[in-house]
Each structure stands twice: as structure tokens, then as C-alpha cells.
Write a structure and sequence with these properties.
The protein is α/β, with parallel strands linked by helices and about 220 residues long. It has 10 helices and 6 strands. A 6-stranded parallel β-sheet has the order 2-1-3-4-5-6, with helices on both faces. Strand 1, helix 1 and strand 2 form a beta-alpha-beta unit. The radius of gyration is 17 Å and the shape is globular.
């Protein structure tokens, strides 16, 4: 798996490169927004399978990394992107998920010190999944959701949606909540109904559900 890694802090970049290489990844590392965009749009042998991108990169140190990744996805729809951020920023998560295509993730930088979780997130995003950091979800859960469709979900449905936002499969959700996969499927169907997300061959309904969750 070929990974484009965008991180301007040398020690962190070096550590991530080593971690990815130890797990069989080929890494192309960059340290600024313009270089990131060029690397993500490479059509040659260095074309990426997934991008791991720090939100804040030179030259602006604002959201240069995120914007370069979003621009690359506009030009190359479905390009897998895993965003790293120091803080929980709902706006970043919303922008990343707005297209509804999947193959996106949002992790806090603290998570990259947990090697297995980080590599699992990279692989799930590369495979087309959606991964949200548990701390992001926990922070959002603290917000009032008395209004809107999210407020109509039962506590168990909220539990299922929270794990769905982390990118978990039905089997993983069932294991985590100690319920059957058929029960997860029923809760998931109910979530889609309550959030008014109908069947579609084109849209990733899980991504749309997570997006509704983040926007509440």
C-alpha cells in the first residue's frame, strides 16, 4: 500500500514513516500544502492508495493540509484521506465528510501513538471506510441534541451510530455492544429510517448517517 504522508514536524513525520514501513507500506513524505497536492495528484508509479494528512501545514499553518486533501478529492473523487488534527474541530470533520463518498477518516494526533489503532484506521480508510476518532465522537456527544432527527434515536441506536462513526463493521459493533449482528442490522435500519436516509446505489449511507450525526 502506497501512503502519502503530510506532516511538517520532523520527529513525528519520521516516527510515522517508520511505523507505516514496518507494516508493509511504501511512504511518500511531504511537509507542505503545495507538495501534498502534487503528490496526491501524481498519476505515475507514485500514485497514492491513501493519504495521511496533518490539518495544519506550511505555508499558512491554518488548514492548508485539509484544503489540499479536499482539492485532491475534488479532482480525484474517492481518494482515501485520513486527516490528523491536534484538536477536535467539528468543521474539519464536516468538510471532510461533506461529499458523502466514504474513504475518509479524522483522528486526533494522540491516536497515532497507538500503533495498531493508527494502522487499522489507515487500512480501513484505504479500503473505502469511514473512521472517526472516539474522542471526536465523545466530544460531540456532550453537545445537546434535544432537537432534530438525532434526538429521535434511542440510546442503543446512538451507541450503534457512535461505533459506526468510528468505522466499525456490523460484526465489530455487535462484539463491542455484546449484541447479535442481526440486532445491529435492525438498529442500523432504524437509524437510516429516522435520519431519512433512503436506499441508494450511489451514496454510502453510513457516511451520510455519520454526517447527519456530526451536523446535529
Amino acid at each position: 500500500m502506497r501512503v502519502v504522508l503530510a506532516e511538517d514536524v520532523f520527529l513525528l513525520r519520521d516516527g510515522l514513516i517508520r511505523t507505516l514501513q514496518e507494516h508493509g507500506c511504501e511512504v511518500v513524505a511531504v511537509d507542505n500544502g503545495p507538495s501534498l497536492l502534487r503528490a496526491l495528484l501524481d498519476d505515475g508509479d507514485a500514485a497514492p492508495d491513501v493519504a495521511v494528512v496533518d490539518v495544519r501545514l506550511p505555508p499558512t499553518f491554518t488548514d492548508e493540509g485539509l484544503q489540499a486533501a479536499l482539492e485532491a478529492r475534488r479532482r480525484r473523487p474517492g481518494l482515501p484521506v485520513l486527516i490528523l488534527s491536534q484538536y477536535v474541530e467539528q468543521l474539519y470533520a464536516n468538510e471532510l465528510l461533506a461529499g458523502g463518498e466514504g474513504a475518509v477518516g479524522y483522528l486526533l494526533k494522540d491516536r497515532v501513538t497507538h500503533t495498531e489503532q493508527f494502522i487499522d484506521a489507515v487500512r480501513r480508510v484505504a479500503a473505502g471506510g469511514t473512521v472517526m476518532d472516539p474522542q471526536v465522537i465523545s466530544r460531540l456527544l456532550l453537545r445537546s441534541d434535544a432537537r432534530g432527527m438525532i434526538g429521535s434515536l434511542t440510546p442503543r441506536e446512538r451507541d450503534v451510530l457512535e461505533l459506526m462513526a468510528e468505522g466499525r463493521s456490523n460484526a465489530a459493533i455487535a462484539t463491542g455492544l455484546h449484541i447479535s449482528e442481526s440486532a445491529v442490522a435492525k438498529h442500523t435500519a432504524s437509524i437510516f429510517t429516522k435520519l431519512r436516509i433512503g436506499p441508494s446505489a450511489d451514496d454510502n449511507r453510513r457516511v451520510l448517517a455519520v454526517l447527519a450525526y456530526l451536523k446535529r
